[in-house]
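Journal club side-thread
Mid-discussion, someone asked how the predicted structure for our own chain would compare to the paper's figures. Pasting it here so we can look after the session.
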Amino acid sequence: MGAGSRLPELLSPATRSPLLVRGGTLVTAERMMSADVLIAEGKIQAIGTNLLLPESCRVIDAGGLLVLPGIIDAHTHIQLDTGLYQTADNWFEGSRAAAYGGITTVVDFATQLPGQSFQQALADRLVESAPSVIDYAFHMMVTDLPPGQEDELGVLPELGIQSIKMYTTYRPNYYADDAKLLRWLEAAARYGLISLVHCENDALVTAQTESLVQSGRTGWAYHGFARPALAEKEAVARVLFLAKAVAAPVVIAHNSTGFASEHVAAAREAGQVAFSETAPQYLLLNESLYAGSEPWRYVLQPPLRSPAESAALWAAISRHQVDMLITDHCDYRKAQKLAVDNFTKTPGGLPGTETLLSLMATFGVATGRLEWTDLVRMMALNPAKIYNMWPRKGELAPGGDADLVLFDPAAEGIVAADDLHMIAGYSPYEGMPVRGKVVSSLRRGEFLVRDGVFVADEGSGRFVARACADDPRFWD
């Protein structure tokens, strides 16, 4: 498809006229249907056929394309600074890559530094994220909340923050022991917050890592041994137990084992408010890659697991036991990964926003493991509902933001870092065949990518306040 062959020339934002997306196949979490979408003033105005069009309405021919709600990646790390390592991207570069992948909203992180208020943590992150072209919300990463000060969490809804992040590992920077976890879970629940928890048993990880270091086995190939699956499984069970004790809603982050997703689902069936997420790396890659020629590509936390664990996660997905598909995106450059062949000194995390949708379309839908409706549920509707962005985000419905992806399911290609817009200079999925491609993405009715060409204005993304659905900021 040549540039401009399907899509009209853009008007300036000040003069933009209504827009009709015509002839595509709309995908919701419930069904697929042939219908048109009428967009005006950044919102979906109507869905149907033979719609009454306003004057000066522009028309997009979406024939042969799927029309998806904008993808919500609910776990990203754009322009990340851990205190030890910094990703090389910024919010313009990171959001541009996401837009090429059909992601129109992310939930990233605002980190509370020691001695810092939540207000200042958010203010600092809003300055960093201002160049974004996609919309963004934040989990508040809680690191400094001494006993007796838990009520400080009550300010978060006023700031538009509805979720916090906690860790059962990464001593001493982020680690929370059981007493701290319990205090923060209970306080978060009192203020209507949901807690996203990274679950790995720190004592097991520390002991395994120390053993490897003492025996001189610190190369990238040993990374997986340092963080065994048992560490995740134990911590997941413990966090669910603690959350149940104080009736705290939780999301168990980036499940790398079937055990994690299955136990979250069982807890929910037993009455807990509990959700799970997993990522393509745990579905498509496995620990055998650490024995290959380029183990540096796969240093991440939790690490890659056995093929049996990948199979168990796919089975959990097929039983609707996984609630969200996310990336845990970290755009470290290849040079940062290759700096030293030592897993204890290599930044952990993989680039993934731009490839999320195409990989899941290829290895989920095209293989028959998933339906398109499943992908929309896990990559748009569920994240929007769990993190209180629905009905503004996550669904193709009148009144919601006009966040859309036009996707060609017949396109074929190969994952190649040279073709991607993430700045890492490598992809963990290099060489994998993909079926399907984002043709265009729109955020609030404005093109981000048009017929494969990036056209968005830097800084046109917005912070999504998530206090509650009836808060007037929710619909700004």
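Post-session note: The first strand starts at residue 19 and ends at 22.
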